[in-house]
Every structure is written in C-alpha cells, then in structure tokens.
Design a protein that fits this description.
- The complex is a heterodimer.
- Chain A is α/β, with parallel strands linked by helices.
- Chain A is about 35% helix and about 30% strand.
- Chain A has a single domain (about 10-255), classed as 3-Layer(aba) Sandwich (Rossmann fold).
- Chain A has helices spanning about 50-55, 80-85, 105-115, 125-140, 145, 155-170, 185-200, 240-245, 250-255, and strands spanning about 10-20, 20-35, 35-40, 60-70, 75, 90, 100, 150, 175-180, 205-210, 225-230, 230-235.
- In chain A, a hairpin with a 2-residue loop joins strand 4 and strand 5.
- Chain B is globular, with a radius of gyration of 21 Å.
- The chains are: A alpha/beta, B alpha/beta.
- The interface of A and B includes residues 57, 58, 95, 100 and 113 of A.
C-alpha cells in the first residue's frame, strides 16, 4: 500500500559491499516507506540475497560505502542482534537447524529477548505457549513443531513456515524475506504467503527477495526492482514482474549493455 | 609411586582369606608398576606428574557431613541412595530402599559374608590389572555390591553418591554389580565435591551382565577443580544382553575415564554416550574399549567434548572385532567443540577388525561454533554471548537429553548452561 506521506522506514543510499574482497553490491539506492511491499528480483548472482544479509548484519559481508538509515538512524551502527531488537527481521533462505534446542524454547527466548529490548514485558512459558499457538494457526502449523528441535528434520516448507512464525512473534518494522518461496510446493506457498499478508500493516514494511514471479501472485508488491551485477537496474510496479515473467531478464541486461538508461 | 601407596599398610584384614590374597596380590602388582608417563601410549596426552606431587592417603574417617550438605544432590526418582564421603560409606546419609524383590544392595564388606560365592566369582575378574585398578584393589575396604536376581526389574535408578570432602584424601571406591539373566535396571554413579579440597578419587566399577539382561550405567563426575579423578568401569556382557553407558564429565583438574566393554556372547546391543565439558586448565581424558568377541553384536557410540579456556580433552576409542565376530555393527563418533584458541582436543579412533563381514563406521570432527548458526540466532535478537551459550548447550544437550532420568537431565541442563557461560569465558 503506497502512501507518499508515510514514514520512511528504510533509506539506502549508494550502498557498496564486499565479501572476501569481492565487490557484490555496487551502489544500491532504495527507499521503503511504512505500508509498502517491495520485491527485489534478478538473476542468480545479481546480489539480491547479499543485499538482505548486509541489511541484517551478516558478518561475512563488509560494507564499503554509502549509508543505510533505518527509521532515520544509522543501521550500520548496530550489531545484528541490536538490529533485530530495533525491528529488522530477516527470513532466511536456508534456515539453520539447531539440534538440541526445542523450537518452543528458542521461540520464547527470541521473543522475550526482543520484547525486553523494546521495553515490553516478557512472557512466562505458559503465557508464551498460548501466544505461539495462536500465531501458529496463521501458518496452519501443527503444534507438534514446538516440541521438536529448531528446524531439525523439518521439510523445506516447514522451515519457511517456522521463519514466518518468527516474523509473526517478533513483529518487525521491516521484514526482509530472502527467497521465502523457493522450494515450496503450491500449497505451502499459499499458506506462507497468506501468513505474510496477515502480518502486513500500514506501520511496517516488507522487502521480498525472490527469483520467481510466482510468489507475487500471492503477495502483491507495490514496487518491483530488478537487480543485476550489484545494482538496481530497473524499478516499476507489479506489472514489471509480469513482464519479467514473460520476457525474462535478458532484455533488461541488453538495455544496460547498450547504454540505455534504466527507468528508476 | 610411594605417595600413591601411602596408607596401604593400614588396610584392615577381612574375614575372607581369598579376599586378603586378592588385595595382597594387587598391592604387589602396584608396587611393581610405576606411574605412567606420556611415553606410555595409553597416557600419551595425559601427564600425571601433578598427581604424583600430591600427598594423598585414604581417610580413616569420613568428613562429617549432615543431610543438608548433600540435599542438593538428591534425585527424587532414585529407588535407593548410597552415600560415600571420602570413600567411606555413610549409612546415616544413605537411604537403602525399599527395593523390589530380587534387588540386593549391600556394603561390600557385608556381601563378602552374605554373598561370598558371587563376590569371589566376579570381584577383580572383570577389570584388568593396570596400575590404578591394582591400587583400588590393594586399598579395597569400602564398596558396594549390587545384585539383580534372575528376571528382577528395578524401574527406578539406584543412586550411588560419592562425595569428595576432605583435603589430600585418596578414595578408592569399588562397585560390583551382577545382573542375572533377564534382569533389568539402572545405576547412577554420581561423583561430587563438598568444598574445594584437592584429592584423588580412584574408582573401579565391575559389571557382569548375564544373558538377556539389560542394564543402564550413568556416570556423572563434577568434582572440584582441584581434584584428580581416575575412574574405570569394566563390563562383561553375556548373549543378547543390552547395555547403555552414559558418562558426563564436568569436574576435576585432571580426570581419566576408562570404559571397557567385553561382548562375550552373540546378539549384544550396546550404546555408549559420552560428554565432557571443561574449561580453565582442566584435562578430561576418556578411553573406551569395545571388544566384539561374538557375532551379531552392535554398538553405537557418540563421544562429545566441549573445551573452553586452556583446557584439554582426550579421547581414545578402541573397537576390536575379533575373528568370528561376523555381522558386527559398530559405529563410533567423536565430536568436539573448541570454544577458545587455547583449547585443545586429541581424539583417536582405533579400530582393529579381524572379521570380514562387519559394518564399522567411525568419524571424528573438531570444530568451532558455526558462524551461520550464530548469525541466525543474532538475527533473532540474541546477543553474541547468549547465542554462543545456546549453541554450546545444544551441542551437549544431544547427549544429556538421552538420559532417562528427568531430574538429572534438568540438573545437568542447568549446570551445562551455567558452565558454558563460564567456561567459554576462560582465557577467551
């Protein structure tokens, strides 16, 4: 939902970043306001996943230039955990398995850590159990997943549901969902996307990083951006995603090579 | 050697001549041996020099403790609890039952009279004759005899609590456990400290499991950071027996855990779980031996260490598959987590296979916490420290969670959570 007078949640200016000395992001500019859904698409290796990890504070990436403001404050002044408590959420492409820690204990620890970081009350195990079961209904998750180890032995779809469950609990201002749709069958995609839709409000924002247009049939983006070689080379509305679906990426890359200016 | 033999002349005579002879032979053996050095293959990574500098001798009386001193160590699930303080059985602190029919738990001295034949048949026959076992036998005066009669079932575990309290005490506790055919039960050996005294615990446990019997042996060692702990558990298993060993090492300045399992019959199933969580200047050495003598045996072993500060963990896992022990299925995993640059692990799987139709797998891994795992937890708001502690805890929880005694699991989880924080911090 576009509301030009809404508060700016994320302001990315000329961001450059490297991993192991190789420049992956070569000058990203992006403005995300409250209530908006942005989709970042692009071919493999374009830097779109890197972008979401840099914003979340992954230690393997080094920010070289530019700046990022989150609700007007310097995002890079915060550690990854501080960003999470401030309201940045990264839905992982490959959620990590943690045998030995039950999902319920992990979810409660994350929830209470973020709550207390925001000056709110923590919940005891019984109170939390009520809350988490309520949120699991959003994602049609079996409560049995509470008693299992975090993501351990979960299918791809179950892991992604568990990611969105964490988003539901942590109530981020900015959700960065990295390839949340990849590897999901259509039923799982419908459920996961439905869960995300229910969590979107006029006060928060979502950046979907995706390789496939299919996800956007379920979550309607306000903006679609195409990344290539570490830059956003084209931005448009949801019709751009459909155009990409029918024409692929090559025409955009060709435009770029011949020096035609991308419409931003 | 003289320091370790101090007080051997004060061991009281027993009413059984064979028993006196057993001790005398062990004393002679101990006198003939010298303390192993790192030139001995079995002690390559574990330097006993600090132990030889200790002036220890057996206690003549147990340090006086009251019930409140050990209340924190109680396990509500236990069917009975025997408490040894400084190696001496303290009946006032113990709770002898009630135990179901067919289960006998007695001080060894009593069993020498009431169960003379059984004791003579097994005592000193299962454990070998290396130095520390010989020393334990030479000093043998205090111990416990546990007997599970044919088909007797003990649902609640037996709790043997060994409290090290006195300064410069050498305790040589001995456990002899005989499980007859079809019997089933669980025994917990729990080594704790009262205070921070330096001393030596040199424990020997001998276990004879008859055909088709099933036994679980849990050992928990959390002695003081100044203590020395040498423990040997030797197990002989008959046809179709099932045996599980779960050992958790948290304490002692220097500890050595020996576990030797002899599969004497066909179709035996064994599970061995080990966990050592150490930090500071601690050294924890575990040596295991699983000896498959007959066909259709299986053994599944996982040994984990979590090593912080400047600590040093050692693991040596021998698996022997003898000629004729066909269709043996034995697996061994050694997994080690280093929490600091100065922490060290030496792990050595040692498989010797003399049969041609067997399945034997082994693996050893030494690593640090995975940065991707840390990032995942931090992205959910957990601080670096909280994330490290949780992952370290989770690594150990795989072993702890398999212990079927809920209050012990809860106690260990709390202890491990607490210690991961402390031990990760040491020297980091």
């Amino acid at each position: 939902m576009i509301n030009p007078s809404a508060k700016t949640i994320l302001e990315v200016r000329n961001l450059t970043a490297t991993v192991a000395g190789v420049e992956i992001l070569k000058g990203i500019n992006l403005t995300v306001r409250a209530g908006e859904v942005h989709a970042i698409m692009g071919p493999n290796g374009s830097g779109k996943s890197t972008f979401s990890k840099v914003l979340a504070g992954h230690p393997a990436y080094e920010v070289k230039g530019g700046e990022v403001l989150f609700e007007g404050k310097d995002l890079f002044a915060l550690e990854a955990d501080e960003r999470a408590r401030a309201g940045v959420f990264l839905g992982f492409q490959y959620p990590v398995e943690i045998p030995g820690v039950t999902n319920s204990a992990f979810l409660r620890l994350a929830y209470n850590t973020v709550q207390s970081g925001r000056g709110k009350d923590e919940l005891d195990p019984l109170e939390f159990d009520d809350l988490v079961r309520e949120k699991m209904k959003l994602l049609e998750m079996n409560p049995e997943f509470l008693g299992r180890s975090v993501n351990d032995g979960f299918s791809g779809g179950e892991k992604k549901r568990n990611e969105i469950l964490q988003m539901a609990l942590l109530e981020p201002k900015l959700a960065l969902l990295d390839e949340t749709d990849s590897g999901l069958d259509i039923d799982a995609l419908r459920v996961v996307a439905g869960g995300v839709n229910k969590l979107l409000t006029p006060d928060n924002a979502c950046v979907l990083v995706t390789h496939y247009q299919r996800l956007l049939n379920y979550i309607t983006p306000d903006y679609v951006h195409v990344m290539s070689a570490g830059r956003i080379i084209k931005s448009g509305d949801k019709s751009l995603a459909l155009e990409l679906e029918s024409r692929g990426y090559d025409w955009l890359l060709d435009d770029k090579k011949t020096g035609n200016k991308a419409v931003v | 050697m003289a320091t370790l033999l101090a007080g051997s002349d004060a061991v009281p005579k027993s009413p059984a001549a064979w028993f006196d002879a057993l001790r005398a032979a062990a004393l002679e053996r101990a006198n003939a041996l010298s303390v192993p050095t790192t030139r001995d293959e079995e002690w390559r990574f574990t330097d006993l020099t600090p132990l030889t500098k200790l002036q220890v001798r057996p206690a003549t009386a147990a340090t006086s403790l009251i019930a409140a001193d050990i209340a924190g160590h109680a396990l509500p699930e236990a069917s009975a609890r025997l408490v040894f303080v400084d190696g001496i059985l303290v009946p006032q602190l113990s709770q002898a039952g009630p135990l179901p029919a067919g289960i006998t738990v007695l001080p060894l001295a009593e069993a020498l009279q009431s169960h003379a034949v059984l004791v003579e048949q097994h005592l000193g026959k299962i454990a070998g004759d290396e130095l520390f076992t010989a020393l334990n036998t030479a000093f043998l005066n205090q111990g416990v005899f546990i007997h599970f009669a044919k088909d007797a079932v003990l649902k609640a575990p037996l709790h043997l609590l060994f409290v090290a309290a006195g300064q410069d005490v050498a305790a040589h506790p001995r456990v002899l456990l005989v499980a007859e055919s079809g019997a089933q039960g669980c025994v917990i050996e729990d080594y704790v400290a009262h205070g921070e005294a330096a001393g030596l615990t040199n424990a020997v446990t001998e276990i004879a499991v008859a055909p088709n019997a099933s036994l679980r042996h849990i050992k928990l060692q959390r002695e003081s950071p100044k203590a020395f702990h040498i423990g040997t558990c030797a197990v002989s298993l008959g046809k179709d027996a099932r045996f599980a060993s779960q050992a958790v090492t948290l304490g002692a300045r220097l500890s050595r855990n020996n576990l030797a399992i002899l599969q004497q019959g066909e179709g035996i199933e064994v599970v061995i779980d080990g966990l050592a969580l150490i930090g500071g200047r601690q050294l924890a050495d575990t040596h295991t031996l699983i000896d498959h003598l007959k066909p259709h045996g299986c053994c599944e072993q996982v040994h984990k260490t979590i090593v912080g500060g400047g600590a040093h963990a050692v693991f040596n896992g021998k698996v022997f598959v003898r000629e004729g022990a066909q269709l043996t299925d034995s697996s061994q995993q050694s997994r080690n987590l280093l929490l600091s640059d100065k922490a060290r692990v030496d792990t050595k799987p040692q498989l010797e296979i003399f049969a041609d139709d067997v399945k034997c797998a082994h693996g050893a891994a030494v690593g640090q916490l995975d940065p991707e795992h840390l990032f995942y937890l931090k992205s959910r708001g957990l601080s670096e420290r909280a994330a490290r502690n949780l992952l370290t805890y989770a690594f150990g929880a795989e072993i702890i969670d398999r212990i079927p005694v809920p209050t012990l699991v809860a106690k260990l989880e709390k202890l491990v959570m607490q210690q991961t924080g402390e031990k990760a911090g040491d020297g980091a």
